[in-house]
């Protein structure tokens, strides 16, 4: 397989998204120009910003639809990043739309902006719905800020994001009622109906239909729960026709174990063994209530799984050889990748102390069977070598793996560790598209 072929999946997916967005920006701008200017320049600007906001809202839906083709090529980390930045653009467009509309009509009527907003809400169809949509999107935006996200459980954060769909419906009905480019042209109406239909259809397919179909087809159940250490447990799952489940080593699922008190809890866990068509295995550390209670799950428990998700797979391997770096329980997708990745492999396993190295025995056996090199680096998170360099900094990476720039590097671990590793790799001249460091962020 050539280098060009190996880089194509991610490049084509990213380029495809940009082309789709750019083409629709062009169409929306043309529809705006065709509708003509408004009575006040501020209102004209507000209309254009409102149209761009509607387009960005539809694009947001596409990014969170969890469509397999996009997810396998870009991964949730990149889709989440695009979702976040698009969200910032959406908020600014909506804020500008509201401000320019209010001040534009206030200037025409000779009243103050607050009084004009009240008048518009009372007299113009769809304005109240638009205000409600803006308030909901602002609420979701605040909940998605980093300071708030760290304090929210995944289920709470996910529930808050469901309000986005209500905001979409309210915004679209507002556009139908008063949008100049919508009500003034048959082509514009067809375009907007198609755009929103495709966006909502993608969400329905990726978030509802596909998970329901896969779970109905595969009938997943727990077969065994095996403690790996005092605070780490592996869960073995089997089902029907698992050889037809498109899961790859390095990917993860969002798991729900359908028992009393747990069915509502959704937890993202990576596969800790490459799928063999017969069973799946996840391995989790007790970091919260959800993962801590896994050891109490009984064999035979039904499982509802969403996925597989993630681009942390050999699909993106460019070089003949690889370096796998794991920190703590981040060893789970790395251990699965070791079964699947090609070429000569070096594995670096970073832990606070030797006893924290879960799955070490089978990792060592697997490395031995395929001729891979395994290094276990133990020490506290802030540990440095005799030269004062981080254990996974550029100097030590170059010492452990002398041809590191000629390997694909897959990194999974705590964010501080991952940041140190990526920085070190960049200092050593490893190409950006050879570094794969998915953090398994979830776009809701």
UniProtKB/TrEMBL annotation:
It is a multi-pass membrane protein. Its main location: membrane. This is Ferric reductase. Pfam families: Ferric_reduct, NAD_binding_1. Signal peptide: none annotated. Residues 215-315 form the FAD-binding FR-type domain. It comes from Kibdelosporangium banguiense. Keywords: 2Fe-2S, FAD, Flavoprotein, Iron, Iron-sulfur, Membrane, Metal-binding, Oxidoreductase, Transmembrane, Transmembrane helix. Its cofactor is FAD. InterPro entries: FAD-bd_FR_type (IPR017927), Fe3_Rdtase_TM_dom (IPR013130), FNR_nucleotide-bd (IPR039261), MRET (IPR050415), OxRdtase_FAD/NAD-bd (IPR001433), Riboflavin_synthase-like_b-brl (IPR017938). It is found in: Membrane. It comes from the Bacteria. The chain crosses the membrane at residues 12-33, 45-64, 85-106, 126-148, 160-184, 190-210.
